[in-house]
Amino acid sequence: MVRISSRVLIGCTLFILAACTSEEDRISKQPVVTIDGRSLEAKEFARRLAAEMKAFDALYAKHPQNVARVKEDVIQKFVNEALIERWAVQNGIKISDADLEAEVRKVRAQYPDDIAFRGAFAKEGLSLDTWKERLRKSLLAQAVYSHVIKEVKDPPEAELQ
User: Fold this and answer.
1) Quick check: helix, strand or coil at residue 40?
2) Do 52 and 125 meet the contact criterion of CB atoms below 8 Å apart?
């Protein structure tokens, strides 16, 4: 009969767990798509995909074509975010902390109290910080779109014809 000391058993278990965690970390950090040096890692892709799929019923979510479409949407949104951020940096467009807080106050005013305001995030599984970061990205996109629209001139009549 072979006797294994508890220290050896614990050591082997910890080694195996560390190896599994290391492999999981390596896979979760693999890029799904990279734009301008900014990568959407597998773990973040999976989180975004799950958030998008949450809106659908089980039958829709199980159909492979629907899943493929949502995956493409997640990647497209990431690409759009990256391009918007690049354009904003190139053109000096920023959302200040003051602008962000002003928008937070506007949204907060729509709720009867702070508990209801924070409860809305809890229902979606979001932290206040995550929501603020999403709000900042949304405000940046609006600012970029407004700036681009102002720059677009109507083509001359000759070009239209």
Assistant:
1) strand
2) no
Give which of 131, 137, 106, 142 is closest to 51, Cα–Cα.
131
Q: Predicted confidence band at 1 (pLDDT cuts at 50, 70, 90)?
A: very low
Helices 114-124 and 97-108, packing angle to 10 deg: 100
pTM: 0.69
Torsion of CA 98, 101, 102, 104, to 10 degrees: 160
pLDDT digits (tens, 9 = 90+) for 117-129: 888 888 878 888 9
List, for residues 76-100, the tens digit of each pLDDT value.
Answer: 998 999 999 999 999 999 999 999 9
Tokens matching residue 127 = 């932290």
- The total number of residues shown for the chain amounts to 161
Q: Look up residue 23 and give its amino acid.
A: E
Q: How far apart are CA 10 and CA 12, in angstroms?
A: 5
Q: What is the rounded CA–CA span in Å between residue 86 and residue 96?
A: 17
First-to-last CA distance in the chain?
A: 93
